[in-house]
Amino acid sequence: MSTYREIHGKAIKSLDTDPALEVDAGQIWYNTASNTFKSIVNLEAWSSTSPLTQDRYGAGGLGSQTAAVITGGRISPPNAVQSISEEYNGTGFASGGSLNTARFNLGACGTEPAGLAFAGNEPSVSDKTETYNGSSWTAGNTMNTARAGVGGCGTQTAALAVGGPAGSTASESFNGSTWTSTPSINTGRTAGRSTGTSTAAIFMGGEGAAPSYTLYANTESFDGSSWSEVSDMGAAKYLMGQSGSSTAAIVFGGRISSTNQTATEKWDGTSWTTSPATLGTAFGYGGAAGSPSNTSALQAGSLGPSPATASSAFSQEYTVSANVITAAAFASGGVYPAQYYGLGSSTNGTQNAALGFAGNYPGGFTGNTTSNEYDGSSWTATPAMNTARAYLAGFGTSTAAVAVGGLVPPGATGSNAVEEFTGSWTTGNTIPQAGWNQGACGTLTAGIVAFGTNPTFPGQYAKAFEYDGTNWTAANDGPTATNDSKAMGTQTSALFAGGGPPSAEAKASYEYDGTNWTAGGALSSEHKAGQTLGSSQNAGLIGGGHSSPQTSVEGYDGTAWSSRPSMSTSRGRGGMSGTESAGVVAGGNPSATTATEEWTGETSTINIEDFTTS
Asked: How does the average pLDDT of the chain come out, rounded?
């Protein structure tokens, strides 16, 4: 019998700790601590990712898993046809250029900076073609045959459109300017899917014409001159997602009758096999993108699954990797002691060490002096504040926090009072500008407070002040007078987001570098008085909002905002503590909730498996 050294040219290593790099995949070693043989093994898996900013079905998808465009589609109810596009950067979705002609059930192919969209329902059947340059769509020459439910693959300058409407065998190729009829497929069908290039493609699945509406498992291969029947898929279905090439592809989800599916099938150029990776949420009639191989894919939006007639925004990623990916998500935490909103909080604390203080309680303005500390599982009362208040600003950590301003009962007067928490609350030097609904971040010895409402409502201001642990110093005014713009980061690298009035500030963000203010990227949704988590002006999250109750969350990368997994509870003016990778939010209104949610960003760990010697 051959030894491992004879086969591979090297001996099995003995290690007291396991390797932790993806490049070590396939290696076998002996762990002397656990007395086991081990290896890093690749996995096929689906994991949830950030949702579309707008739910829809029947959208076209193009690009790769880390640079995709999802365009067009339909919202149900009320069955409104869309022209919007969203771009995916591997983490979240952000607004892209809109189609010139709104449509759904369309074909799409190409890359994120060089895309192509064609055919579809307007709701009438369309022959229109549009090209994408990474920011806007341009109308091009029409197709030879108006159609919908078409399979599309290839590039912006070398594309293929196959099938659709029901029973159609038509096939056309696009050279960047004109469409030319190509040989017909053998079995006419709609809502099948295609992958590959304009001269080397496969077309699979689909639905036949009325009255039978037969579902097909058929796969046909195109060599540039003719279509040939090859191996069938494992199940007859239509409206799937797809990714890959003519020799290495996957199809996933789809519909059988009106039921969304979870199965993934892999194509090796000869036959289909069922992948062990199943979708976490059943998917059908949505957008898809991926690589020219069968190792990565993106699903975005869907019809259903529950209810089956409603459009959805959920998205999922398929990967073949040595890493086990745990998707970013909010999870339930310990219950906040009361239904407070307008809280102050230790914005620069952590997920497992946070402080919430003061706030208002449903039933009229009262304010309060309560203070509560979170340890990662439950909230515990700490010594009370000296002044009852609500709608105040807060920053610092759970053991070194600052409370600033707010509304003080009984006359609901804007305050300039400051208190510091270092195990108990003590009075600090007052801030020069009295107010409430300010934004704040930083530490006890290096904080920033900006924007807010004047003591006499409804006036807003743009003033900003820095705190050194003792004294306040006027900083440069912010760009716009507003309130409820909430902050994250540090005194020298801060990010403020949301706000209003004016209403435009609900989607605005501003970066502060310790001296100057710079306009940041625009938010996709309004997040006035939202909850923020972040470490700098280049990395942060904002979720929910007060004036527009919602659970949506957006993340910032220093340039642009994109979607993130949503919170479970709609809230604004809640407490918050932590960073873009780990944090906690609590309380808030309009639901006057006691719910706490813990945020954990996406993580990955190496997949190490033990081997037996038998």
From this structure: 94
Q: Tokens 């009075």: give the residue.
A: 427
Of the listed ranges 15-19, 193-197, 598-602, the least confidently predicted one is 15-19
Could you tell me the two tokens for 242? 């797809």
Confidence class for position 590, pLDDT limits 50, 70, 90: confident
State whether the Cα torsion 581-585-590-594 is positive or negative. positive
Which residue in the block uniquely carries the two structure tokens 């905002």? 561
The single residue listed with the structure tokens 């596009």 is 85
Per-residue pLDDT of 504-563, as tens digits, reads: 999 999 999 999 999 999 999 999 999 999 999 999 999 999 877 789 999 999 999 999
Q: What are the Cα distances from residue 569, in Å, to 373, 391, 566, 580?
A: 21, 20, 9, 19
**CATH architecture, domain 334-594:** 6 Propeller (2.120)
3-state secondary structure 379-435: EEECCCCCCCEECCEEEECCCCEEEECCEECCCCEEECCEEEECCCEEEECCCCCCE
No. of helices (H) and no. of strands (E), the chain:
1, 60
Q: pLDDT per residue over 203-259, tens digit each? A: 999 999 999 999 999 999 999 999 999 999 999 999 999 999 999 999 999 999 999
Mean pLDDT of 81-106: 98
pLDDT of 5 above 60: no
pLDDT at 40: 73
- The pLDDT tens digits of the residues spanning 387-396 come to 999 999 999 9
Q: Does residue 16 carry a pLDDT above 90?
A: no
Predicted TM-score (pTM) of this structure: 0.92
Q: Which residues of 164-183 are buried (b: 16+ CB within 10 A; e: fewer)?
A: bbbebebbbbbeeeebeebe
Task: Please tell me if the domain spanning 53-288+297-314 has the same topology as the one spanning 334-594.
Answer: yes
- Residue 340 CB partners (closer than 8 Å, separation 6+): 356, 358, 359, 360, 361, 368, 370, 390, 587
Q: Are 274 and 263 in contact (CB under 8 A)?
A: yes
Q: Which residues of 325-359 are buried (b: 16+ CB within 10 A; e: fewer)?
A: bebbbbeebbebbebbbbbbbbbbbbbbbbbbbbb
Q: Is the pLDDT of residue 21 over 90?
A: no
Instruction: Phi first, then psi: give them for residue 322, nearest 5 degrees.
Output: -80, -5
Question: 145-150 — which CB contacts under 8 Å span 24+ positions?
Answer: 145/170, 145/172, 146/119, 147/119, 148/105, 148/106, 148/119, 148/120, 148/121, 148/190, 149/105, 149/190, 149/191, 149/206, 149/207, 150/106, 150/107, 150/118, 150/119, 150/120, 150/190
Q: Are the CB atoms for 126 and 108 separated by under 8 Å?
A: no
Judge: domain 53-288+297-314, CATH 2.120.10.80. Answer: yes
| Residues constituting the chain | 614
Selected residue with higher pLDDT from 8 and 408: 408
Q: Where are the domains of the chain?
A: 1-43+321-333+603-614, 53-288+297-314, 334-594
> Could you tell me the CA-to-CA distances from 368 to 156, 357, 440, 586 in Å, in that order?
61, 8, 20, 16
